[in-house]
Amino acid sequence: MSRAKITIPYTPRPVQQQIHAALETHRFNVLVTHRQLGKTVCAVNHLIKMATSNVRPFPRYFYVAPFLKQAKLIAWDYLKRYARNIPGVKFLEGELCVQLPNEARIWVCGADNPDALRGTYADGVVLDEYAQIKPDVFAQIIRPMLLSREGWVVFMGTPKGQNSFFDLFNQAQKNAQREPSVWWVGVFRAGESGVIAPAELARLQAETPQAVFRQEYLCDFTASAENILIPIDSVLAACRREVKPEDIRYAPKIIGVDPARFGADRSVIFCRQGVKAFAPWVGTGLDQMALAARVAREIECFHPDAVFIDSGCGGGVIDRLRQLGYRNIVEVPFGGSASKPAQYANKRAEMWGEMAQWIQTVGSLPEVPDLKTDLCQVCYDYDAQGRLRLESKDKLKERTGKSPDLADALALTFAAPVRASSGLNTRPEFAHSEYEVL
Fold first, then answer.
1. Domain 14-193 class?
2. Out of 3.50.50.60, 3.40.50.360, 3.40.50.970, 3.30.420.240, which CATH number does the structure's domain 226-437 have?
3. Three-point CA angle 111, 114, 119, nearest 5°
4. Which end of the chain lies in a sparser environment, N or C, as judged by fewer CB atoms within 10 Å?
5. pLDDT-derived band at 113, boundaries 50, 70, 90
6. Stretch (H or E) spanning 382
7. Are residues 360 and 315 in contact, defined by beta-carbon separation less than 8 angstroms?
8. Contact 371, 406 (CB under 8 A)
9. Domain coordinates of the chain in residue numbers?
10. Is the pLDDT of residue 402 over 90?
């Protein structure tokens, strides 16, 4: 017997369509969103779709908010609204449960009474406003519920400082590197989702304290931290900055190359001309000769005045390019001495420090999500001599699960001052126009 078609009265926004596509193809999901994106509506409809399409006996699904009263206020009306047209649906008000014709059930629950969930199983669970839920609720109660059915889970919410949600976000990034088909991490900021009109967002920014705006609308876990070198709002402002051809006509062209350090790291080629950074080329799994060939191709297209390459992992690339006859190839040791030794602890701190000033004042960045993440995760402090010092790449990778390869490649374009080779640089446009991952 063919199953009846069920239509849910829900038309997702474009950003919600992106989220649905990820949730339906991954088991463990971490969704970080700005306020008023519509994540709860998205999650409720995901629960309904998964429940109605489940052919296993007696499917069970749960929507969990920090408090039962909050869960009822946020999700129960949405569940009834979107499930009411399903033939044979029943709403069990006393249990806050929707019973579907295939015997699937969806409960609305509060994490303030987690013991009520013990002893049952789950095909899928949504944990909303996860920053306010104690982490042992998942570890001790929800995770065991998923075992028998190999159920899925969505952790979602808006940042509230560097708490358990922040820890989960960092761990999930690591897990997604190891198991990209199992784990998914999505970050949706107000300036990118298209949900809030630009004029209204500008009013919000003007009316809201900066730290609150960065946290609630820019999804910045570090909004209250004082040791982040480049704040996310500076990065987003640089992405919006427009550059005219005449603004960079006389500016030098520079390429930064950050070869992959380890297997999961990315090799990145970044081109910059004056105040404009172009979309990077990103590749994985390349040996030194293959990367050298790609850099040579970018040199032929971009005609740079200097090419700065991380010497720590790029020795073979540097040797090959020089063997091919390319000039202006400069090896840069990240741990080497800074050109401004009174201000920076080493060359890496100097490159990042100069890049930070550029981003916060005149720089124009390409719209590349991974670059934004890389740029705003690096912490800093000062050494005994009062010089800027960055968190080590190894420590950052341990904390976030990945190396800031895109940001490091852009930082390399600030390794040393560069002059244009001619009075008029007539090729301001970079031939490689797309952010590409190979």
1. alpha beta
2. 3.30.420.240
3. 140
4. N
5. confident
6. strand 380-382
7. no
8. yes
9. 14-193, 226-437
10. no
